[in-house]
């Protein structure tokens, strides 16, 4: 995969939200305003997250990878986001477990197939402690994006 999916204009550094709902509201509005998603994206991603949570318990920094069904995506994207403060996010495949998440990769894929490889590459990178620490310490949005674009395999 090349970095064309990584969306500079949807990237956020130190986004100040207090909940997953607020995260989805802010990012859905931005993605819709920029022509990446449909009007239905917000309700669809909230429902999908409720049914199938997306926080990964990678050590030492859990990461969330929320995504919607392809029908709600106009242009494909990966939107890397660092939150100002960690928020509670339900763990993937374990709704009873709540993780503290500060790094979120909001994903928008237009096809069901083909994204598994990207998810696997992201997961490998999320397990690299040096990479994750660099993402958390990046001083500027440009530095943050550069770290994302240098991730192994992306």
Word description of this protein:
- By secondary structure, the protein is α/β, with parallel strands linked by helices.
- It has helices spanning 20-33, 41-51, 115-126, 129-137, 141-149, and strands at 12-15, 55-56, 63-64, 77-91, 94-108.
- The protein has one domain (6-148): Mannitol-specific EII, Chain A (3-Layer(aba) Sandwich).
- The protein has a five-stranded mixed sheet with strand order 1-4-5-3-2, sandwiched between helices.
- Helix 1 packs antiparallel against helix 2 (41-51) and helix 4 (129-137) runs antiparallel to helix 5 (141-149).
- The model has no long low-confidence stretch (mean pLDDT 93).
- Residues 4-151 form the PTS EIIA type-2 domain.
- InterPro entries: PTrfase/Anion_transptr, PTS_EIIA_type-2_dom, PTS_SugarTrans_NitroReg.
- This is PTS EIIA type-2 domain-containing protein.
- It comes from [Clostridium] innocuum 2959.
Write the layout of secondary structure elements.
Layout: E1 12-15, H1 20-33, H2 41-51, E2 55-56, E3 63-64, E4 77-91, E5 94-108, H3 115-126, H4 129-137, H5 141-149
Parallel strand pairs: 1-4, 3-5
Antiparallel strand pairs: 2-3, 4-5
Helix pairs in contact: 1-2, 4-5
TL;DR of this structure?
The chain has 154 residues and is of the alpha/beta class. It contains five helices and five strands, in the order E-H-H-E-E-E-E-H-H-H.
Can you give keywords for this protein?
154 residues; alpha/beta; Mannitol-specific EII, Chain A; 5-stranded mixed β-sheet; 5 helices; 5 strands; 25% strand; globular
């Amino acid at each position: 995969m090349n970095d064309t999916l990584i969306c500079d204009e949807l990237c956020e550094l130190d986004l100040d939200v207090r909940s997953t709902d607020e995260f989805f509201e802010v990012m859905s509005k931005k993605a819709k305003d920029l022509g990446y998603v449909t009007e239905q994206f917000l309700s669809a991603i909230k429902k999908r997250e409720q049914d199938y949570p997306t926080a990964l318990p990678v050590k030492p920094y859990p990461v969330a990878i929320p995504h919607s069904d392809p029908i709600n995506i106009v242009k494909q994207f990966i939107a890397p986001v660092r939150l100002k403060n960690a928020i509670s996010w339900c763990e993937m495949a374990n709704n009873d477990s709540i993780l503290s998440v500060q790094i979120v990769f909001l994903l928008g894929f237009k096809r069901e197939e083909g994204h598994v490889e990207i998810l696997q590459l992201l997961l490998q990178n999320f397990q690299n402690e040096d990479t994750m620490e660099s993402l958390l310490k990046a001083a500027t949005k440009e530095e943050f994006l550069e770290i994302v674009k240098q991730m192994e395999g992306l």
